[in-house]
TrEMBL record, chain A:
Composition bias, Polar residues: 233-257
Lineage: Eukaryota, Metazoa, Chordata, Craniata, Vertebrata
Family: Belongs to the UVSSA family.
Ranges that cross the membrane: none
Compartments where found: Chromosome
Protein name, as recorded: UV-stimulated scaffold protein A
Keyword list, A-Z: Chromosome, Coiled coil, DNA damage, DNA repair, Metal-binding, Zinc, Zinc-finger
Pfam family, one: UVSSA_N
Main localization, broad class: nucleus
Disordered: annotated segments: 233-303, 410-488, 504-532, 628-714
GO cellular component, one term: chromosome
From TrEMBL, chain B:
Pathway(s) it belongs to: Protein modification; protein ubiquitination
Organism of derivation: Salmo salar (Atlantic salmon)
Assembly notes: Part of the CSA complex (also named DCX(ERCC8) complex), a DCX E3 ubiquitin-protein ligase complex containing ERCC8, RBX1, DDB1 and CUL4A; the CSA complex interacts with RNA polymerase II; upon UV irradiation it interacts with the COP9 signalosome and preferentially with the hyperphosphorylated form of RNA polymerase II. Interacts with ERCC6/CSB (via CIM motif); promoting recruitment to lesion-stalled RNA polymerase II (Pol II). Interacts with KIAA1530/UVSSA. Interacts with a subunit of RNA polymerase II TFIIH.
Primary localization class, coarse: nucleus
Sequence segments annotated as region (Disordered): 371-399
Encoding gene, per UniProt annotation: ercc8
SUPFAM superfamilies per UniProt: WD40 repeat-like
Name assigned to this protein: DNA excision repair protein ERCC-8
GO CC annotation terms, alphabetical: chromosome; Cul4A-RING E3 ubiquitin ligase complex; nuclear matrix; nucleotide-excision repair complex
Keywords: Chromosome, DNA damage, DNA repair, Nucleus, Phosphoprotein, Repeat, Ubl conjugation pathway, WD repeat
Amino acid sequence: MWTYCTGVSITSGKRMDHAQRDKLSELVEELTTSGEPQLNPNKLKEVKKICKVSNDYIEHFYHLTMTQLAQEHAEIRLSAFQMVSELFTRSHHFRVLLVDNFQEFLDLTVETDSDEPLPPPKEVARKLKTVAIKTVQEWQTTYGEAYKKLALGYHFLKQVKKVDFHDVQARTLAERKREEERQKRLERIYKDKVEKATKEMEDASEEIEECLTEINNCMKLLLPAEFDLSDLDTSTPANNSTASVSSVPNEKASTSSDLDEQPCCSKDLELQREPKNPETSTATKTNEEKEEEDPSDEDSDMEDVLDEDAFIRNTGLISHKYSLDLNLSTDLKLKETEENEAVVNTMKDLHKLLSTKHLPVVQYWVQVFTKAGVPEPLLRRAIDFKSSLERALQKHEDLHIDYKARHRRVMKAPEGSDDDDDDFEEVPEKEGFEPHIPDHLREEYGLEPSTSVASKKPVQPQVKCPATGASHTLSRPRKRATDEEQDPTCAAATLRLFKQRLLPQPPSTSSAAGGHVDPTYQASDPSEERDKAPVIPFGLDLYYWGEEQPTAGKIIKNSSQHQFWVPNEVEEEVENKELAAQMKSRYITFAGRFQPVKHRCKTPMPNGALCERQDRVKCPFHGPIIPRDELGKPTNPEDSVRLEKEEWKRREDQPDWRDPELMRDIELATGEDLGSSKTFGKGKKGKGKDKKKKYPNLSDLKKGVNTSRSRLGKKVFNPSSMRRVTDVMNKMDKLKHAKFANQFNYALN
Amino acid sequence: MLGFLTARQAGLDDPLRLRRAESTRRVLNLELNHDRDVDRIHSNGINTIDIEVIEGRYMLSGGADGVIVVYDLENNSRKPQYTCKAVCTVGRSSPYVHRFSVETVQWYPHDTGMFVSSSFDKTMKVWDTETLKPAEVFQFEGNVYCHHMSPIARKHSLIAVGTKDQKVQLCDLKSGSRIQVLQGHRGEVLSVRWSPRYEHILATASTDSRVLVWDVRRASGSLFSLDQHNGDKSKASSEAVNTAHNGRVNGLCFTVDGLYLLTTGTDDRMRLWNSANGKNTLVNYGKVSNESRKGLKITVSRSCSPEFVFVPCGSSVAVYTLHTGELVTMLRGHYNNVDCCQFHPDYQELYSGGKDCNILAWVPVVRPPDVEEEGTAAKGGSQATVNPAFEDAWSSDED
């Protein structure tokens, strides 16, 4: 640039005012480095004013702008381009100059040369390109005829670079082509995928459908026919098994007498429905279904109607405006039993198959189809599959099937063998607690004949009978039951215990029936403590807990190490204290609890603030943390004395002439940099800040470089670390050479 | 000019002198002329152009799209504005069109009724200009980079063909067969040229950095190979063979009198050789940027007093004086690499074709009327009346 300027001044020095020219350069630089999307109109006007004076200024301006256009910064280029376009419409001379070098101009603004892309920042570069293309088109329409090269350039852009001047994106053909190719490739991939998926669907659809039908049938088998699965979601069906009456206590009390007289089996219902009167209770009980599913709403409605008369008659309560809240759980609970075992098993398998195999596949199909945009029927079919699968799975969820823990079963002996008068009856092998006990064995276990909890059988007829006899004494089986319950070895006792624990408010009858100290209470106490106790890993010390060990920590030591040659049988026993201790003791590390640091360093800093660091013991900048007041002065006098001493010592370390204040004075006087800011200013001012940015308005190109990669790169590739690495590698190399020096193979290289 | 005219009138000067002076002046004033256009037919880069020497009227061009176009250069409209029309075209719709890029086209030196084109589709076709059908098609094993017919040959009608193969082939138009093979190169032959002085002398340039000069009557081998160091073994770096360049040699051109041979190579150098003995004249042209992987068509001016060389150089055409190596000017007008240029000897015009699909005509600037009294101001005024686009348009608020 400068060489050119001198050239200009030589050729046209007499016609060009030096001051004006300098001002023009200054203005151009200011305008181009402003970094703003629009030029400052006042400055631009001034530029135009200068340029208007003579062609020499225009020439000078042309060269200035061309150098600015060549800068590797899109903002500078954009501003320069705007100035160029301003002058282009004004001056013929400028047009001649610019058109003469139009190739370069296009290179710098429209990016005609793919090897020289526009410089960052990207958005500005894109804007520059679009603006430039638009402007070139405008120029072409106004000046295209007059300036041949302009027309040529326009045609070049249009026909060779295939710039679509109407396209706002102003993409060149190559870019468009690339985009197209990418699209095509994607399409091809999708097509392949779709084809594959369609084929898969063809193959698998039958299987899936089969699965679906099967699982649906299973469900139908498990649930009664009238129980429509689709109603599940509407939460209408009542479930009497879980219905608990949360009515006012007095009502409960009034009915409790009835309950007392109820047969034992009804009490054994896991979750008891509190009947309002015996009649209704029987009515309900008859309605009870296999799976303890319960009658729907209608039933309960009917009940209510029935209630009205019976209620008064039976309870003697005149008002029947008691509010009765029924918590009707919508959940179905299905338990696996022997009868439905096969069905449930199949269903389980099917469920697994559907959820792990079919559903993901179908989801994948849907995904592929939606992405690739296939004809609708295909997609619809896939979606249908998906929804039906999901529905089936949902149904399955709703059933809440309680799968039995799988256990091995021994096949029962054939019927004939039963007749043998064997003392021992063959029983199914049991592992621990048996959730289900066959009816014929119940008595043996001390259980009531029927537990409706587990079985899905209709309630035994004897359930009904006690309803008539209100003041029925304990029947024989009942008596026996209570007896057995007393016996802790009997299963009945355990069951009872469970029941009691399960029911938080045991009915008052239970205590009457039991008549013994509630064992649950005693049991619960240690268990609570157990919860609190810490869990420690098992070790040797626990293994020998409470035992005295004669051999603890003793090691038999052979005095001779020889393999064959054994001296006299001298076995020396050495006692190892450490080992012995290990046998008997246990280390428990006490980590303590983390306590956050509350104090601050509070050392006064050069900027007037106090150090905010919260180190526990020592601040990395200001040494050990000592108590300080709000101004940052040490509260302990000895601390302040020590600090002062340290300060003195540091001062003394620095030679006199490096006293920063003195140096600053000298610097001011001489105007030379002695490095005063370096010596002491380290903590005060960042070094980088001193260096003024040349053009603060331009966006910083280097800022974008601050990525994790670049930061890592800075660390990894800095010279010292590189040197370190090479040193280590050289050393390793050398080691290898030293080790294998006597092998010719390594000695050579 | 007036001096030359009076001297000519008085018979003091050789008639050649005036002619030379004027043509030199014209060549020095070559400029992209606003009035002269060449039809844009090619949809891809232009690889080669050739102007016939009989009338100087028709120009052939071959493009990278395989299309061959014949232009009429003569302006009969009596207006300064003229667009060179395409007379006929072997377009993509033609059944005889070259399938791939046409690398070289050349008029038959003695008649415009025939021309020869060679292409990357491994063929060379001899065309009948009237019917635009190939009269003869030569098939080769590799891409054909170049071919050349001797402009002065009377005793033979051979076409030298440089292909991807190392051998230079000689095709005889009389028999329509390949009659001879010149062996010697070790790389692709990028350029071949017959001497305009001796009809049996042929120069060939190849990617093996060598330029060989042949006498086609001699069967045993080349006459000599050009050596850039003139046999100075100390400079030649341990190579046994003589090299003309330190890269591919892709441009070859005899001067009009055939005494000198110009070569360009991808080492960005241009060299001038004495064609009689193969000595390097050591003219320094400076750096002549050259990145072409194919042949480059350079040309020299005719009947100027210092002769000029026109070399495609990036996106411009460089003009050098032949014997001093001085860069006269750069003709900048193309927007992409220039591949070929051709000098029109009668009108001192230059036509150049480049990858930007343009054929540009560089026409000498007409001497401005030497009318003293009107001065420059009037000139500016008259220009302004001619074209309003040349006017300055300073708005009034900028004072």
